[in-house]
Amino acid sequence: MTKTVTDVICPFCGTLCDDLEVVVSDDGKELFEVYNACAIGAEKFLHSQAKDRITRPRMRQEDGSWKEISYDEAIEYTARMLADAKKPLMYGWSSTNCEAQAVGSEIGEAVGAVMDNTATVCHGTSLIAVQDIGIPSCTLGEVKNRADRILFWGCNPAHAHPRHMSRYSIFPRGFFTGKGHAGRKMIVVDPRPTDTASLADIHLQIEQGHDYELLDALRVAFKGEQLPDFVGGIPKAKIYEVAETLKSGRFAIIFFGMGVTQSIGKNHNIDAAIAVTRDLNEYTKAAIMPMRGHYNVTGSGQVWGWLFGFPYAVDLSRGFARYNPGETTSNDLLRRDEVDAVFVLGSDPGAHFPFSSVKKIYNLPSVAIDPHETPTTEVCKVHVPVAFVGVEVGGCAYRMDNVPIETRKVVEAPEGMMTDEEFLSRVLARVKEIKGV
Amino acid sequence: METVTLTIKNQPELYLEADNITPDAFAGKKAEEIAALHVYIGREQHQLGDFFEVSGGAGATPEETKVVVNGDLSRVKYIGMKMTGGEVVVNSNADMYVGAWMQGGKITVNGNVDAFAGTGMKGGEIVVNGNAGNYLGAAYRGDWRGMADGKITVAGNAGSDLGTFMNGGEIVIGGDVDVHVATHAEGGKIVIKGNAKSRLGGQMVGGEIYVLGNIDVMMPGFAYREDVDIEMDGIKGRFALYEGDLGERHRKRKGQLIYAKLYQQIGA
Q1: A5, A14, A104, A102: which is closest to A45 by C-alpha?
Q2: What is the pLDDT of residue A310?
Q3: Which one, out of A290, B121, B163, B259, has a CA that is 20 to 30 A from the CA of B29?
Q4: What sign does the dihedral B66-B67-B70-B72 (CA atoms) show?
């Protein structure tokens, strides 16, 4: 017989859907079906049941093959590597719970590491902009219940956050948005005709790399000042029209993604987008929100925010927290040979970093903690498989709007597997022993 | 003026954080005392003498002290950080944060500097006889009070994010610059003798930019006003004057909005 677990939280993207239903065996050891989730979310649950799953740590041998080792040996290697390094990089942290992030931060403090999360190649630039000029934001609940002007800038939720539009931003009927989709105006700014753009009332097909100029043009348009005939390939009449559309709404929300945070200008693009939001508040209510990717990248920023005062790229090497993206960010550290060991947990830099950075990881002492086999585990010296957070162990995660949600355990991890938190706690204890504290 | 000469003898495995290489830290000290000052590699603390040959001696005050640094310094950070007086001459490329938060004195770099040179500068002078990296004369992360005073002169090119949040002082670039010049600036003067790419004066509140070469893309928030003749500091010619950033907030004087000014040379 089977049983159905309801109200399950999906540990895939920053939308953190909380209405999943999962069918598991009566003894809670097998997972059969996932309902309500998007294709990616369902796959994450089902992947925990893969027959070829790695369930024990492995160490790379001289000839390139893997040798199975015990968790104890993996803990020893990891603790030694971190304790011996002058400046280790501890990267990732976005696909695990806040509890594990907190233990990891303690290790980082003990060994003088640079702590960095996936924001470094994602929304870190947004965080720089927030620090520079602040952010008028809101929760997704407010978007659902109030927003009638939805602007997606450089993001494609149809593919990256598949249930975002149906649960929060475009289709749901909320308290003051009873007409659902019909009562909302949707604007998409994207150089490509994406599936998201195909749903839009207005699609501004901007020339690539002119986001900063177009955002500035919107601010000029709000003030009724003169514009050049074209900005980023968009005729000025269209820009005035969009400015008017945004001003005439009751509640405008700007969602933005990698298209602006990691294209030319980076933090400046977000800086300008926040300024647009601020300006809009002179005419109506407006808010802005980053489309955070990993389900708990927001959480790692929160944890480090309250522990160290900075949300990513935190350099603890001198015993106090320093932060300067461009210097203390993972790719800059790797590119410039500033670190001498790499620890990765809950992310896949092997797939997402430039190849030149991945090569550096390959040449350094390195450990990857990940339930899956990934391009990162392929270049690291030791791979430690762990239980899936949000599937085989619960814990706190932060949604993209900074709302904390407790994820749930729905199925047992394979016999004898450790969780992130258990593994890190053991490493921390061993590091303290080695350091004599 | 007394001179201290540092010559690098051992290259660090990672990078050396040498915020003690300043006339302020050296003043009143003999060579042995200077060699005993701290430097850091990651979490490890070492002595300056472990990496540098130290000769000569410092003057009684920073103003009477000149520091000459020789050898390859491309892995040494923070040279001249927070210095208040005296002189530093770097005969090599230097890494990040040269003259960061500098308050007085003069730094001459006979080579290139990496990013964040002159961060949050309050006074003094930096001369770079090579190229400069990104964030030259910019504010520190999250600080809305950037370069306040002093002068930075670069013979070659400069990177992106030049003079972000600049409030005062002057930056002169002999060559070309990358994107984002004087973003959020409220004052100060930037002269670019070569070409500029785009995003000059984005969100700029006040201050002046002079460009002698081309500008690839002008910000939509900058509006052409008039042509003017300019003669100052060896620059002479006819310039087109643009004002902006029209989208940004601006101060008022006698009821008139005061905009930032961007001058682009259009003739001799």
Answers
A1: A5
A2: 97
A3: B121
A4: negative
| CA dist., res. A124 & res. A121, Å (int) | 7
Q: Mind telling me how many Å the CA of B161 is from chain A's nearest CA?
A: 9
Tell me the domain boundaries of chain A.
2-47, 58-121+295-435, 124-290
Q: What is the C-alpha to C-alpha distance for residues A262 and A121, in angstroms, rounded to an integer? A: 7
Within A174-325, residue ranges assigned H as helices are 211-222, 236-247, 258-261, 267-280, 297-308
Q: What is the pLDDT of residue B233?
A: 82
> Is residue A381 a contact partner of residue A365, using CB atoms and an 8 Å limit?
yes
The CA distance from B241 to B221, in Å, is 13
Which among B13, B44, B199 has the least Cβ separation from residue A265? B199
**In terms of CA atoms, which chain A residue is nearest residue B182?**
A268
CB contact under 8 A, A339 and B41: no
Chain B environment of A220 (Cβ under 8 Å)? 220-221, 246-247
A274, A126 contact by CB (below 8 A)? no
Q: What is the pLDDT of residue A406?
A: 97
Kindly determine whether residue B219 and residue A336, on different chains, have CB atoms separated by under 8 Å: no
CA distance B197 to B181: 9
Contacts of A319 in chain B (CB under 8 A): 43
- Are A324 and B140 inside 8 Å of each other by CB? yes
Contact B43 A86 (CB under 8 A): yes
* A vs B: CB pairs below 8 A: 107
Angle between helices A420-435 and A71-84 (to 10 degrees): 50
Residues in chain A where the model's pLDDT stays below 50:
none
Contact A132 B144 (CB under 8 A): yes
Q: Mind listing the pLDDT tens digit for each residue in B189-209? A: 999 999 999 999 999 999 999
**Which residues lie below 8 Å from residue A222, measured CB to CB, with a gap of 6+?**
A243, A247, A276, A279, A280, A282, A283, B247
Whether chain B has a CB inside 8 Å of the CB on A272: the answer is: yes
Helix (H, G, I), strand (E, B) or coil at A66: strand
Q: How far apart are CA A253 and CA A150, in angstroms?
A: 5
From chain B, pick out residues whose CB is under 8 angstroms from the CB of A271: 183-184, 203
* Token pair for A43: 């796959």
Task: Indicate the average pLDDT of chain A.
Answer: 97
The domain made up of A124-290 is a member of CATH 3.40.50.10840? no
Q: Inform me whether the C-beta atom of residue A336 falls under 8 Å from chain B C-beta atoms.
A: yes
Q: Dump the DSSP string for A340-359.
A: SEEEEES--HHHHS-HHHHH
Q: Which residue has the tokens 């980053």?
A: A290
Whether A263 and A155 have beta carbons less than 8 Å apart is answered as no
pLDDT at B139: 97
Contact list, A337 vs chain B (CB under 8 Å): 14
Task: Look at A217 and B248 and tell me if their CB atoms are within 8 Å.
Answer: no
Query: pTM for the whole thing?
Result: 0.96
- Which pair of structure tokens corresponds to residue B249? 């907030």
pLDDT at residue B121, as a whole number: 97
The pLDDT value recorded for residue A396 is 98
Confirm or reject CATH 3.30.530.20 for domain A58-121+295-435, answering yes or no.
Answer: no
